From TrEMBL:
One of its GO terms (molecular function) is FAD binding. Keywords: Monooxygenase, Oxidoreductase. This is FAD-binding domain-containing protein. The keyword Oxidoreductase applies. Pfam families: FAD_binding_3. It comes from Symbiochloris irregularis. Residues 325-388 form the FAD-binding domain. SUPFAM superfamilies: FAD/NAD(P)-binding domain.
Amino acid sequence: MTSVDVAVIGGGPAGLLVALGLIKTNPSLRIKVFERAQRYRECGAGISLHVNGLKSIKAICPELYKQFEARTFEFETFDECNQAGEVVTERSSLPAANMQSEQRLQEYGVKPGFMGWSDIQKLFYQALPQDVVQFGHALADIREHAHGVTLSFPGQPGVEASHVIAADGYFSPTREIIMQDGPPAFQNILLWRARMPWQEGLGFPREGRWARSFIGAKTYSNIYTLQNGTVGWVLSVPTAVYEQRGVQFDALAFATSKQRREAASGQDILKSSTEEQHQRALQAAEGLAPQLLTWIKASDPDGVIEHGLFTRPSSLLEPAADKGWGKGRVTFIGDAAHATRPTGLGLNMALEDCPELAWFIQEQGLSADTFRAFEKDRAPRVAQIVRQEEGRGSLAYKDDVKEVSNRNELLPMKPDEFERFKETERAIKI
Ligand SMILES: Cc1cc2nc3c(=O)[nH]c(=O)nc-3n(C[C@H](O)[C@H](O)[C@H](O)COP(=O)(O)OP(=O)(O)OC[C@H]3O[C@@H](n4cnc5c(N)ncnc54)[C@H](O)[C@@H]3O)c2cc1C
């Protein structure tokens, strides 16, 4: 039986950064991250890193932040097209075309930009001491007792932890067992994402930093350049549209038993990227912009990630609801705590959790009371962001390109949002 002070469940961005935060602020704690995948692979597509996410990384590890500053980039063009592929808005000529990185750097000391999802995960992983992340550990059961928490991982020795930080994503098995508050709610949207090597003859240049959105027909998709000659695409289709095209998706099974089975069998989540998922993406994209379809067709099926869009409502997080998101010696961070719409703030909010929780543990010690203080302090900000994104997120699925284009103008983060973040930001001592 392995014994640790803190068991972090899930080696996604939130789990890795919180482990780094705890190691930096409380070097005497014994910390392990238990990740169900057998290894990390290049997957996912791209993510916007905003001022709040980057300040959270910098608060925990200024040297690591420097690596992000060197790698994030801004798009030179961000065009919006209709589903015939015709450009409707050339965002290169508008202020919202970029994240005003240089200006933000002057104002806030960090440089926002775009980056591949797996590049973010890789940088966090490399910053941790080698034996912290334990791969092939899919949490199947978790029981709290008087002196700690017992964790079970099929095919692996059990783990005894004094406290647990669950960062196991929006289908968090830990949450299912500890909170018993059911899976997040399906938002009637299916998403596919992939990253692939740039290919000659598919219609976009290898050079330059370009991005293109395809809007209309109640469907929203993007294609853009990423690092090292790769291209990312995201296809996001509402139920009414994909069902019309014959795509079958059982959201409830996806949210509950299927995920639990995978976790219990220790199956690498990435192995669920199959030929079938790729076929479903192609079927769901039928009739959409040909420029996008060619890239989806050319993708390696193994690199395509498919998932439903599930969120937890902001009302659960409002102070009046007084529900909290932790219990006893277990707390939650990232998507496990507050699954929200993918409008660009989900990962950044997950990153915000990390220095906040490290600060509370540094100031108040490791205890259930500290976890409750962290959750109580964090809930109002998280509720406000989740509420804001509930509204903005649903506006992406319209027929009218201009309507969606106007909504894109509103996307985070604007100066008032930076100011609100500053009110809650905590300075940890390293
Ligand atoms: C493979 C993958 C690719 C993604 N790609 C994109 C993308 O391209 N663009 C984008 O905007 N967002 C993407 N996301 C979602 C986005 O990254 C999340 O919203 C954000 O990262 C929140 O971070 P998190 O660490 O809280 O959760 P996640 O990133 O979901 O990480 C959760 C981690 O927990 C692990 N886990 C789950 N169950 C168990 C268990 N039983 N035992 C142990 N470990 C477990 C998972 O394998 C995963 O590594 C992706 C998520 C995943 C998992």
